[in-house]
Amino acid sequence: MSARNKWLNRVRWDENGLVPVITQEVGSNDVLMFAWMNRDALARTAELGQAVYWSRSRKKLWHKGEESGHFQQVHEIRIDCDDDVVLLKVEQVGGLACHTGRHSCFFSVLKDGVWQAVDPVLKDPESIYK
Amino acid sequence: MSARNKWLNRVRWDENGLVPVITQEVGSNDVLMFAWMNRDALARTAELGQAVYWSRSRKKLWHKGEESGHFQQVHEIRIDCDDDVVLLKVEQVGGLACHTGRHSCFFSVLKDGVWQAVDPVLKDPESIYK
């Protein structure tokens, strides 16, 4: 490990070597998505200045936008008081973070005891992933 | 289970019966904190209109503010596209979510390869928890 990556030791990785990551849009402060990173993903994110997550389903690094072009330009990397959650502040290229073609993954709200999708699809997902 | 809690079945609880929860302030959109809920905690949160988490360290329900008076009034409960992360939009009583006496738990930012606490302590923690 290089000395310049000492900051990674402050993170309290969970039993799977992962840390939860909240991704928030600079400016609007909207929460765009939630994902996970391992040590490599967080190191790559800092080096590259673009969000690189760990895909738990595919068990590999996931450079957000690699298929869609919707990269996330990282403005800030924050950590919480317990050192076990990361907050990324990003500029979302294309304005779409969600694979459903919406701005944010958190588009469903609980109303009258039912989950209701309240935010619009801005782009047909089929045209995002060609 | 009562019929009016059917919405809880939509949540994809993890192997420990928990779901990650991001808590965001209404208005500023600041991310205040991150915690976990089990089914009971989420049901109680919806019923009470105040955030009730599951404390993984103390292994019990944690009604945020029960000691400090800094309750979180819930305005919205959202869920993400995978149904496995909850986003609460709250009004933070007292303006302080963090046990360090800060507005948000995410007060440290990575600068020049070092984590730096950049947000001020607004209230002495010893005067919060009497």
Give a written overview of the molecule:
The structure is a homodimer. The first copy, chain A, is mainly beta and about 130 residues long. In chain A, about 10% of the residues lie in helices and about 35% in strands. Chain A has two helices and eight strands. Chain A has helices at about 40-50, 125-130; strands at about 20-25, 30-35, 50-55, 60-65, 70-80, 85-90, 110, 115. In chain A, the strands form three sheets. A four-stranded mixed beta sheet of chain A has the order 2-1-6-5, with helices on one face. In chain A, strand 7 (about 110) and strand 8 form a beta hairpin. The model of chain A has no long low-confidence stretch (mean pLDDT about 95). Chains A and B meet through strand 1, strand 2, strand 5 and strand 7 of A and strand 1, strand 2, strand 5 and strand 7 of B.
Briefly say what this structure is.
Two copies of one chain form a homodimer. Chain A has 130 residues and is mostly beta strands.
